[in-house]
Amino acid sequence: MYFFTRKVPKVPVSSVLRPFLIGNRAEVKQMCITEYNEAETMQLFKEHAHREGRAESIRGTIQILRGPGLAEVQIKDAIIQHFDLQT
Predict the structure, then answer these.
(1) How many whole angstroms separate alpha carbon 42 and alpha carbon 49?
(2) Which pLDDT band holds residue 53 (cuts at 50, 70, 90)?
(3) 58 by DSSP, 3-state: which?
């Protein structure tokens, strides 16, 4: 509660953060109370980016393999083998 009673009123009215902080008061307060863990948050961002990058790579590879007119089963087998996926 200290954050909102002492700090938010001191944020300049012209600040782009002020409406966000006030509009998301409960979430910001909870985050302050539960101690933000930067290392854990960064790890979650990395894992998410890795999954997204891998998915994008698979989609791109599928598009490339469709060019020569390979059958869907051949494309599936090539993707599973290349990306070391389990069926």
Answers:
(1) 10
(2) very high
(3) helix
